[in-house]
Design goal:
The structure holds two protein chains of two kinds. By secondary structure, chain A is mostly helical. Chain A has one domain: ABC transporter involved in vitamin B12 uptake, BtuC, CATH 1.10.3470. Chain A has 13 helices and two strands; from the N terminus they run H-H-H-H-H-H-E-E-H-H-H-H-H-H-H. Chain B has a single domain, classed as ABC transporter involved in vitamin B12 uptake, BtuC (Orthogonal Bundle), CATH 1.10.3470. Chain B contains 14 helices and two strands. In chain B, strands 1-2 form a two-stranded antiparallel ribbon. The chains are: A mainly alpha, B mainly alpha. At the A-B interface, helix 5, helix 6, helix 9, helix 10 and helix 11 of A face helix 3, helix 4, helix 8, helix 10 and helix 12 of B.
Chain lengths: ~350, ~300
């Protein structure tokens, strides 16, 4: 680092209480993101004011609220899958593949059992199979990191593409629904193996399972021995090793737990919302979950909140497609700009500019 | 054409886009910056090249546009990483997302629109050599340009004074600073140059290899480039070897299918990615130890026990 690069600690502005100035920074940062996004829409010939107002309007309908809750369920899992390894200093970009492995594991279990057990028991086994499959996929990356020294960010990324090809291989071949009119989808999950709907809300149990998982992750990271040790490894691995912690085991377990959470996300989507695997199953949920975790600096409860926020952006983005005729993936621009705003302008440490 | 010669020709054709991106990433990583946004730079490069080639009927104008677009997106990464101290790996993915969204937004109208693409041009003389003629000397101009770019980049990175400064920026920043150089300026140059090359790689993909634009067409090639750079230890000739290996694995699938082997297409599609992971495993440990100090900070949050 040059002298100029050394971060200069600037005394926080005392005029405003810390909370207010941080809040102001958020408002300015997010406003900037909205302005840039608006100018992109303008360049594309869409009226940004109309687009924004229809995005907000879309959020107020019951269908949208239900949509947000439904999309949030796998997204919260995908985000927690990043947050847990991140506590140990690991970068898990493999949510995309681990979600798919969850769906694949659950489908394999459902096919293997063939309805021989009661629905509830089967559902638990589906969750187990999906979590295990996701955990195995991420632990592989952790193992490569540990034994061969390859960065897990790179391997998890590459494993995403392999997972996708694995799923496509299965749904175009062995698992293709014989009654599916030639479509590359698996046979729908039998009704007793699906997640129950909760009360009159019309929501499947997935979002509630996700909330429970968030609370569990928060508790496990905060109050258990394992969580404490993970945080020590993430903070200073050398010190952790000298203190006699089993750093290797902790790193692998953090990756495995992350993968298991993503795997559960895949099961929840399969058993709660879609009931079958198809080529676009949970596509880009893994990446959005990654962004959610970094948005909230890996604190489980905030991470889950960020996931809901991004799900809301995604759902409101559907109105862009309907009302402004913009492609659905356009909301990715807004998400990326929000993230850049947060990375760039809401950090507490100030960096000297030269 | 024999299977071997078909696969080797495909290796060069399909590997060139990764080669550009990989050599570009070698500049950035030599200066101590990892750019996972390389995938995004390839995407915006591919769309810019295709759109401009379609509008102007000039593939060279398209290639230039791809180069500029790739560099511009890399500039976003450079700014947030170098000026705002964002985490390199996370920010790279955000930049990719930005590229993904922008190309969906602006690319939709080009999806089935024709564009003037580069056509293969057989080099007189060399092109009619048995074997190597088809494999090396019957390609689009951007592929030939990459043949020149590899040795030029090797020289720039390992033999030139500028390359020395670049590597110092990744390795011994304090030395660089004490000689009065701005580390940050050099890192900016390296990242943006890397992005321009990735953009050119995207251009080769869109207007020389696939002759089409479709959403998310890069399909992980940018990530593969980053992986190749790791086991190639940022050396352009080794990056070329790794890129062509991926290209060969890509070419294997259509070559086998054309010969009537009844192998599931998606099982074959996984081969290139599996190959890269296997090579990473085979060469990974040694390479990781050779990484510049600045990169180790990014890649090695914790030591392997």
């Amino acid at each position: 680092m040059t002298a100029a690069d050394v971060p200069v600690v600037v005394a926080p502005k005392r005029a405003l209480p810390g909370g207010v100035s941080a809040g102001l920074r958020w408002v300015v940062a997010l406003g900037g993101a909205a302005v840039i996004f608006g100018s992109f829409m303008l360049a594309k010939g869409a009226n940004p004011f109309e687009a924004f107002s229809s995005m907000f309007a879309a959020l107020r309908t019951d269908t949208s609220l239900k949509g947000i809750a439904t999309q949030s369920a796998p997204l919260i899992f995908a985000a927690l899958a990043v947050a847990v390894p991140a506590k140990a200093g690991l970068v898990n970009v493999g949510g995309e593949g681990q979600l798919l492995l969850g769906g694949i594991g659950a489908t394999a279990m459902s096919l293997a059992l063939g309805g021989s057990l009661p629905g509830g028991v089967t559902l638990v086994l589906l969750c187990l199979a999906g979590a295990l499959a996701g955990a195995a996929w991420s632990a592989l990356a952790g193992l490569l990191r540990l034994k061969v020294g390859i960065n897990e960010a790179v391997t998890t990324l590459l494993l995403n593409y392999i997972a996708l090809d694995l799923m496509l291989f299965l749904i175009y071949d062995k698992w293709k629904d014989a009654n599916g009119s030639g479509q590359p989808v698996t046979a729908p999950l039998p009704v007793p193996e699906r997640l129950p709907l909760i009360g009159a809300s019309g929501l499947h149990a997935g979002i509630f399972i996700a909330v429970v998982a968030t609370a569990t992750a928060w508790w496990a990271l905060r109050s258990t021995r394992w969580g404490f040790q993970l945080r020590v490894v993430g903070g200073n691995p050398e010190a952790a090793r000298r203190a006699g912690l089993k750093v290797g085991l902790l790193l692998i377990s953090a990756m495995a737990v992350g993968g298991a959470l993503a795997g559960l996300g895949g099961v929840v989507q399969l058993a709660g919302a879609e009931f079958k695997l198809r080529p676009g199953f949970l596509v880009s949920y893994g990446y959005i979950g990654f962004l959610a975790s970094w948005l909230a600096r890996h604190h489980p409860v905030r991470v889950a909140t960020a996931a809901v926020l991004l799900a809301a952006i995604a759902v409101s983005g559907d109105s862009l497609q309907l009302d402004s005729g913009l492609p659905a993936a356009t909301v990715n621009v807004l998400m990326a700009l929000v993230l850049l705003a947060v990375f760039g302008w809401t950090q507490h440490k100030k960096v000297a500019t030269t | 054409m024999s299977l071997a010669s078909e696969v080797l020709t495909g290796a060069v054709r399909g590997g060139t886009s990764i080669l550009y991106a990989g050599v570009g990433e070698s500049y950035a990583e030599s200066a101590g910056v990892v750019n996972l946004g390389t995938e995004g730079s390839m995407l915006v490069g591919a769309l810019a090249a295709y759109a401009v080639a379609s509008e102007t009927n000039n593939p060279w104008a398209g290639a230039l546009a791809g180069l500029v677009a790739g560099g511009a997106l890399a500039l976003v990464h450079a700014y947030f990483v170098l000026h705002r101290k964002a985490n390199q790996l996370a920010n790279g993915l955000v930049v990719l997302f930005l590229g993904l969204g922008l190309t969906s937004l602006f690319g939709a109208s080009y999806v089935s629109k024709p564009a003037k693409s580069f056509t293969p041009w057989r080099i007189p003389g060399l092109g009619s050599l048995p074997g190597v003629g088809d494999i090396l000397f019957n390609h689009d101009p951007l592929t030939y340009l990459s043949f020149l770019m590899v040795p030029a980049s090797w020289w720039l990175l390992t033999r030139s004074r500028w390359g020395l400064l670049l590597r110092a920026a990744g390795e011994r920043t304090e030395v660089l600073a004490s000689y009065g150089h701005s580390v940050r300026r050099i890192q900016y140059m390296a990242v943006v140059l890397g992005g321009t090359l990735a953009g050119l790689g995207g251009a080769q993909l869109a207007i020389a290899y696939a002759n089409a634009w479709f959403e998310n067409m890069v399909q992980g090639r940018g990530f593969v480039a980053v992986a190749v750079v790791i086991f190639a230890a940022r050396q352009p000739f080794k990056v070329a070897a790794g890129s062509y290996l991926f290209g060969a694995a890509l070419a294997l699938s259509p070559a086998l299918q054309a010969r009537g082997y009844g192998i599931n297409q998606f099982a074959l599609d996984a081969i290139p990615y599996v190959t890269i992971v296997v090579v990473l495993v085979a060469l990974g440990r040694r390479r990781a130890a050779e990484a510049p100090e600045g990169l180790k900070k990014v890649f090695e949050v914790s030591p392997s026990t």
